[in-house]
Amino acid sequence: MAIYFVTSNRNKFNEAERILGMKLKRYDAGIKELQSMDAKEVAVDKARRAYAKLGKPLIVEDTGLNIAALKGFPGALSSWVEISIGNRGICDMVRGKGRNAYAETCAVFFDGKTLRAFTGRTYGKIMDHPKGRNGFGWDYIFRPDGCRKVYAEMTMDEKNRISHRGKAFSKMKKYLEGAGAHG
User: Fold this and answer.
1) Closest Cα partner for 16 from 24, 96, 146, 44?
2) What CATH number is given to the structural domain containing 43?
């Protein structure tokens, strides 16, 4: 069965294929996302609306950067914040307020009948300034607890082993293998 990953972000697509260990078809449905700080709420809504448009088994995901000192902000709005003020702006927002944060991904599989959501969370800190050359989004400013590097200083395999997205898609992989959905 072919599974579509509904995303306009090639980086997310590449990470998902690598973690799942299967070929996906990328589809940009052009769906406006629900505006919420809750990644699961956004992903479930996106899955239902994408399926209504595509009518084929699909995966969507949404990710948020939740900063403790900002009471969870920006959450799933993090891409908009990163686009508007950049990674330096995010670093500046938390200066003197505390740098604890967690990254969370909710990956959803939906085939029109069964909707399954898989969440992954990684705790860490927001750095003083961006670092690294790999990655995308706020990979340059998020350092997972227990690591010396931000995501953007890691290889894709290093990142996928510990990241929020890696955790969510690893759970999905087990489900898809058990459901026979990848064949």
Assistant:
1) 24
2) 3.90.950.10
Is 108 in contact with 59 (CB distance < 8 Å)? yes
Q: What is the pLDDT of residues 63-74, one digit of tens each?
A: 999 999 999 999
Determine which one of 38, 45, 62, 139 is catalytic.
62
Looking at residue 136, its amino acid is F
- For residues 183 and 174, give the distance between their C-alpha atoms in angstroms, rounded to a whole number: 14
Whether 128 is catalytic: no
User: What confidence tens digit (pLDDT) does each residue in 117-139 have?
Assistant: 999 999 999 999 999 999 889 99
Output the pTM of the full model.
0.91
Domain count, the chain: 1
Cis peptide before 144 (omega within 30 of 0): no
Residues of the domain holding 116: 4-179
